[in-house]
Amino acid sequence: xxxxxxxxxxxxxxxxxxxxxxxxxxxxxxxxxxxxxxxxxxxxxxxxxxxxxxxxxxxxxxxxxxxxxxxxxxxxxxxxxxxxxxxxxxxxxxxxxxxxxxxxxxxxxxxxxxxxxxxxxxxxxxxxxxxxxxxxxxxxxxxxxxxxxxxxxxxxxxxxxxxxxxxxxxxxxxxxxxxxxxxxxxxxxxxxxxxxxxxxxxxxxxxxxxxxxxxxxxxxxxxxxxx
Amino acid sequence: xxxxxxxxxxxxxxxxxxxxxxxxxxxxxxxxxxxxxxxxxxxxxxxxxxxxxxxxxxxxxxxxxxxxxxxxxxxxxxxxxxxxxxxxxxxxxxxxxxxxxxxxxxxxxxxxxxxxxxxxxxxxxxxxxxxxxxxxxxxxxxxxxxxxxxxxxxxxxxxxxxxxxxxxxxxxxxxxxxxxxxxxxxxxxxxxxxxxxxxxxxxxxxxxxxxxxxxxxxxxxxxxxxx
DNA sequence: TTGACTCTGCTTACACCGTAAGCCTACGGT
DNA sequence: ACCGTAGGCTTACGGTGTAAGCAGAGTCAA
Lengths: 227, 227
Known about the structure:
2 copies of one chain form a homodimer.
Chain A: H1 19-33, H2 40-46, H3 61-75, H4 85-102, H5 105-110, H6 118-133, H7 138-161, H8 167-179, H9 187-197, H10 206-218
The structure holds a DNA duplex.
């Protein structure tokens, strides 16, 4: 059969396997099992392949993790200058938070990763571009970028590491921690828990917008008169 | 010899080994080798003991990591109400940052840790106490706490994961990343790097105080009129 | 004094990890 | 038809967390 000359038909024999397929499989696995579940053997198994085959496309496990982080960054919406820097930063931050919640392991990977990938660089460049275009000085853009991203990563880091996902779970956990202790040892934690966090309708996630608005409201372009 | 009745003299025979000695040894090891170097065998070796002996005092490796994080929190200065909430929050944040820089592995451990230890709880309680004492409402204190800590953790997370420690290293790294690419692919990153970050005297660490001041300045007690 | 119980450290063993080294086979260029 | 090479596979090694069981010392009852 002449058609067999090329394998592009996808002869079931062997699929091509390249870096991006490996990284994507690793991300899927991490979403399901956590980053600890991302072993070379497990990733390979997910692709119907042996562990050592991955090393033809990936330098080592660390390189794979770098790729995963970059793939996550690629999911974040790039900001656009159209609607003004405030809205652009706001939308970008919310998109980033949504993405990082979808891949909770990614934040914990941010430290220990040293080589930013192309998507990461493109993302940072776009953010700086919006700020500069809106009149922020170089130093001002750097500062705004630093503050916003610190808040963003820090919030998600805390959010993701909370040992509960819903309000009911919160109740159980808080009860477990505070209940087992000397009553009155942590009066303010008790207060904030019972009078605030356990109130129906409370959702810690809502704090994100509030904090973000507070920070964005304190920023402004072209800080000529400022120290 | 009657004195031998009690081993309290410290017969060189065997040292007692308890949880706190184990956790302290693990922290020392992590400071020196990074968190990946904290293996049960290595921690035990540092104490002149075999790996399995640790399990008499520590549930498992995860429990050990929990203990390490709590020990780090214990190093952070508790805020005191004396000089006003602004200065208290400022000093607390700077102390926390100094501690987390001393133990760079700790931030990365914050996620994946689910059981806060006593030092952690005491710390959070003290922060809330200062804010409440200064007139913040329960909701306001919760919000302030969330914003400040998010910024703090996020900043340190980024700071710690930077692949350099000094300005010269920054130059090399930046050159390596940006140099290997299409010139002009990331114009704003190039701009900020060459015109700002590589300027003599620039230190990213200084951004911390600026961002913190910006956030603290936007907070205020008793947000009656606010949404 | 003696014996039993408990506490704590040690030894051994297992499954799983990342990955170095080398083999085998199918494909593409000649 | 051949052969180099790329990209899979197999095997193997040292290191990991930790389950299971052993050994010696401290404490207490009889």
